[in-house]
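Sanity check

After download, print the first record. It should look like this:
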Amino acid sequence: VTAWIISNGTVSGTLTTVAMGNLSGTVNLSIQGLSSIPGAKASFQPASIGTSGSSVLTLTTSGNTPPGNYTFTVMGTLGSTTHSVTLSLAVR
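Expected structure tokens:
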């Protein structure tokens, strides 16, 4: 999945979890690799969701974010189990 954004812009998307088997509890969301995108910030609303829930991820770039293609990883952790997905951000 690639999100397109302009420098000094904002883009949002919804992340959804789906329970598999009898898993239940709170899934904590986090990001790795965002520090490789100069001036980029991210937030989840909410930052923790149930095993069948959703959260909005908002990415913001600054005027200092150079154009280019970047990747980062979104992770969901439940207890000792972590699942991740790598996403792309194209800054124009």
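If your output differs, re-run the checksum step. Summary of this record's structure: The mean pLDDT is 93.
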